[in-house]
Structure formats: structure tokens, C-alpha cells
Amino acid sequence: xxxxxxxxVSILILFLVVLISSKEVLANSELIPTVPMFNSSSLIxxxxxxxxxxxxxxxxxxxxxxxxSSIFGTVFLEKYHxxxxxxxKSWNFNDxxxxxxxxxxxxNVDSAYRARTxxxxxxxxxxxxxxxxxx
Length: 135
Known about the structure:
About 15% of the residues lie in helices and about 60% in strands. By secondary structure, it is mainly beta. The strands form three sheets. Strands 5, 6, 8, 9 and 10 form a five-stranded antiparallel sheet that branches.
């Protein structure tokens, strides 16, 4: 009985986390819409790291759920400048089944950066935004 209760509570918590993560997120006084993953994607990761205080590394991995699915889109590196996010660099991608890449970019110190991706797996749209890196 105890195991069943713990399992039920765990499933409820997981459901609530998924439900909340599909809503809009408030970050830096700006509403950032998120597009939840639907049927075509099995995994979308986008991460940003700082190296030596002025080199940013962007890691992106996207995997389609079904074989021979086309994946295309763009990864954007954005800088927070005068109260808004401005694109400083972008990389396009187009492949089948999955994409994986790591990009580095030399930046200015005393700035805030984030990475953002958007695109399509087959006809299904996706988007993702990383955490903010302050240098």
C-alpha cells in the first residue's frame, strides 16, 4: 500500500512539473514563451557554458522520435543589450534523425548572454531557451 501511494504521488508530481513547464516563463521581466515537445521529438537539449570568462560554448542536441524525420532550424546566441535580447550570432542546422553540435563564441565581459533554438521536426515546431550567463 505504501509503495502504491508513493508511486501515485510521484506520478502526480511529474504530471504537474510537465504541465507547469509548458506554460510561459518569466525571466528578466520578459515573458518567454515555451513550446512543449509533442510527438515528433524524443529529445531536445540546448546548453550554454562560460569558459575563461569570455568564451561561451553552446551545445545543441536534437533527436527525432521517428526514423527519417527531417530536422531543421537555427540556434541563436543572444546578448542582453539596452533592455532587450539581441542576436549576436546564429547557426542554421538541417539534417535527418538527429543533429548534434558544439559552437564557441568569444564575447565581451560585463554582459548577459543566452542561447535560443527554434525549428521544426517534420511539420512540428519546437523552441528552447537556455539559462542566462552573466560575464
